[in-house]
Amino acid sequence: MKRNHAMHPRALKKPISTGKQTQRILISLPASTTAGEFLAFYSEHGLARLEFPPHSAEAFNSKTKTDPSNVPLPSAIRLWHEQTSRALEAALSGQPVETFPPLDLHGTEFQRRVWSALRQIPPGATIGYAELAARIGSPKAVRAAGGACGANPVPVLVPCHRVLAASRKLGGFSGGLDWKRKLLSAEGIALKLRL
DNA sequence: AGGCTCATGACTC
DNA sequence: GAGTCATGAGCCT
């Protein structure tokens, strides 16, 4: 079987690996976009996690989420969430993000290097997993770099979708390959068909 | 400490 | 194309 993850819209199987430290999530808020309702999780330091819109209503309702209009929010989080929402909207339409919310990314050293390298890829550009590994100083850790992409807690804003497999093939995507295609095409990036 | 799984890539048919 | 292998990191036992 090919490893085609396009089917399962929400990967609940894999717990978010954030390294050793546990991260306290204070609140999760829905962020409406033209592409659906994302779910944003905030710690005391900023945006900690982002989930793609659930495909089924039940999955959505089962989430522990908080309606921002019903709950008194710390002003910091309210601001972060506005920044997140605007950033998402921009990114989904392929435009550069002007202002990011503070990101509170927990992970191993290696993963953080990868995520940081991802953020240096400008919209409309792509690199390969090999290039990504080279950029963080571990040119041979190609597969591991892919693994760290998969562990990216904040997809879309940390643009793991801009990493393609060799010869412009699609590679994988934790949120499902349909999302990867959508994000890439919004940025005007042409792909080879098929994986 | 050992084994297994990968969002790979390069190489062989 | 399909099969195969080397490979680093992470996450289990």
Which characteristics define this entry?
single chain, 195 residues, alpha+beta, three-stranded antiparallel β-sheet, 6 helices, DNA-binding
Verbal overview:
The structure is a single chain. The chain has 195 residues and is an alpha+beta fold. The chain is 31% helix and 13% strand. The chain is built from six helices and five strands; from the N terminus they run E-E-E-H-H-H-E-H-H-E-H. The chain has helices at 57-62, 75-92, 109-118, 129-135, 142-150, 177-186; strands at 27-33, 36-43, 46-51, 127-128, 163-164. The strands form two sheets. It has a three-stranded antiparallel beta sheet, covered by helices on one side. Strands 4-5 form a two-stranded parallel ribbon. Helix 4 (129-135) packs across helix 5. Mean pLDDT is 85; it is low at 1-19. It binds a DNA duplex (13 and 13 nucleotides) through residues 3, 5, 17, 19, 108, 110-111, 128-130, 133, 138, 140-151, 160, 163, 165-166, 170-174, 177, 180.
Number of strands: 5
Rough outline: globular
How confident is the prediction overall: mean pLDDT? 85
Number of discrete helical segments: 6
**Topology as a string of helices (H) and strands (E):** EEEHHHEHHEH
Distance between the termini: 13 Å
Radius of gyration: 16 Å
Summarize the amount of helix as a percent range. 25-40%
What is the beta-strand fraction?
A: 5-15%
Major sheet description? 3 strands, antiparallel
Give the strand line-up of the largest sheet: 1-2-3
Poorly predicted segments: 1-19
Global structural class? alpha+beta
